[in-house]
Amino acid sequence: MTGARDRVLDAYETLLIDHGPGSATLDAVAAAAEVSKGGLLYHFASKDALVTGLLDRLRERSAADADAIRSAPDGAVAYYLRTSAPGGGTPGGVTRTYLAVLRISDGSSTGQEVRDALAVVDADAFAALRDELEDPVLAWLAQLVGDGLYLRTLTGTPLPPGLGVEDLLARMRRYLPAAEA
């Protein structure tokens, strides 16, 4: 069963994604989470605390995803690309939380805090890919390909007709011989 704190963060994510930051007032978040405003304030004493909670959630989910990248049976590169692609999905909701955080990335009071959290996500993935690929440039290339797929996921853009992630992985195997892509 989901606790009130997680329901509040889930509701905040939903409001940010579906309606933007302007709609994510404390009252709206409390109503969407089906908790009283006092219940929300018990977990998050202010809007800034709610933002911090969302950023903490992103960092936690990113760390868990990095562990999954490292332990993927078919290799880090294959996991990263498959879960970055439209429909691939990442366990633990990191994609959804990432999208919600992007919605608040241009807020003047939270901008640097958000950029710092997004930098942690980037560093987590790069470090996990580096565990598989000795060459940092190849690890970065693999990350950039995954990031491009991830952008398609976030924007709802499909892959080109007739091409899929397995086609991409097959080609990348030529360039990433150290990886079990």
Fill in the keyword field for this structure.
about 180 residues; mainly alpha; 9 helices; transcription; transcription cis-regulatory region binding; DNA-binding
Q: Can you put this structure into words, describing what you see?
A:
This protein has 181 residues and is an all-alpha fold. It has 2 domains: 1-45, Homeodomain-like (Arc Repressor Mutant, subunit A), CATH 1.10.10.60; 52-175. It has 9 helices and no strands. It has helices spanning 4-19, 26-33, 37-43, 47-71, 76-84, 94-103, 111-132, 136-155, 165-175. Residues 25-44 bind DNA. It holds the Pfam family TetR_N. This is TetR/AcrR family transcriptional regulator.
Quick overview:
With 181 residues, the chain is mostly helical. The protein is built from nine helices and no strands.
Query: How much of the polypeptide forms β-strand, as a percent range?
Result: under 5%
Distance between the termini: 37 Å
Secondary-structure content class: mainly alpha
Could you state the order of secondary-structure elements as H and E?
HHHHHHHHH
Number of discrete helical segments? 9
Spell out the blueprint of helices and strands.
Layout: H1 4-19, H2 26-33, H3 37-43, H4 47-71, H5 76-84, H6 94-103, H7 111-132, H8 136-155, H9 165-175
Helix pairs in contact: 1-2, 1-6, 4-5, 4-6, 4-7, 5-8, 7-8
